[in-house]
Amino acid sequence: MLISIIIAPPATTSAPAVLPAKPKPLRLDELDRQLLEEIRAGGRYGTGFWTVVDRVAAAQGPTGRADARAWRLEVLKHLRWLLQAQVVFMFGKKYVTSFRFPKAQRN
What we know:
Blueprint: H1 30-41, E1 47-48, H2 49-59, H3 65-84, E2 89-91, E3 95-97
Antiparallel strand pairs: 1-3, 2-3
Helix pairs in contact: 1-2, 2-3
């Protein structure tokens, strides 16, 4: 009789089956760079969330009201992506900053 399965002794440790994936470098487009520039100009404690969205959308030179709204939605989408990727962070409820602050603790 031939044994086809080899089992390691229970006392040995084994390497993890799957190695953690290396994070991919972020690819920032021009709109992302403009957002980062505007946020960093606000200093350590950041700039208002909607102030950043409005300034960057206005810098795109919208031709009308509908175009301005479309730009604001596009900028908002990019800002949410930067928040999710942890490139920028929320400071409080209304401000966006490029610095990560520790969570406030209540005593």
